[in-house]
Amino acid sequence: MRFTLENRSHDSHKTRLSLAGLPKGDYDILLDGQVIASLNIRDREPNFVSIAVGFNDCCQIEIVKLEKDMGRGSLPISEAKWSAVLRMLIAPRI
After folding, report:
1. All residues at 6 or more sequence positions from 25 whose CB lies less than 8 Å from its CB, including other chains
2. CA proximity to 18, closest of 7, 35, 37, 67
3. How far apart are CA 78 and CA 74, in angstroms?
4. C-alpha dist (Å) from residue 29 to 10, 11, 91, 93
5. 3-state DSSP assignment of residue 77
6. What's 43's DSSP letter?
7. pLDDT tens, residue by residue, 12-65
8. Which residue ranges make up each domain of the chain?
């Protein structure tokens, strides 16, 4: 999942991102392509990430779910699989 974080105050500051409802697993949080945090989600409780926002007008935040691949370490989940996960999370419950 990727989104743009706007800095409407145009000053350097920290903000806190709250993540909840993600499937169990390991995640990297990226700021403009650089890993700023790693999370291990065990339940659907909120997890928090502190983000240092610079003077730029905006920055890109990306949340990447990692998968274990026999002997090769963590790999990003495929885009198609991630889209399916997101659809499940935002689908209305009947």
Report:
1. 40, 41, 65, 66, 67
2. 37
3. 12
4. 22, 22, 23, 28
5. coil
6. S
7. 888 898 888 888 899 999 999 999 999 999 887 889 999 888 888 888 999 999
8. 2-90
- The two three-digit tokens of residue 10, written as one number: 């145009």
Distance, CA of 40 to CA of 47 (rounded, Å): 9
Residue 8 has pLDDT above 50, yes or no: yes
The token pair that represents 55 in the structure block: 């003077």
**Which amino acid is present at 84?**
A
Token representation of residue 49: 């990430």
Is residue 67 within a helix (H) or strand (E), and if so which, with residue range? strand 58-69
Judge if pTM exceeds 0.85: no
What burial class does residue 19 get, using C-beta atoms within 10 Å of its C-beta: 0-12 exposed, 13-18 middle, 19+ buried? middle
Angle at 62 between CA 58 and CA 64, to 5 degrees: 175
pLDDT at 57: 84
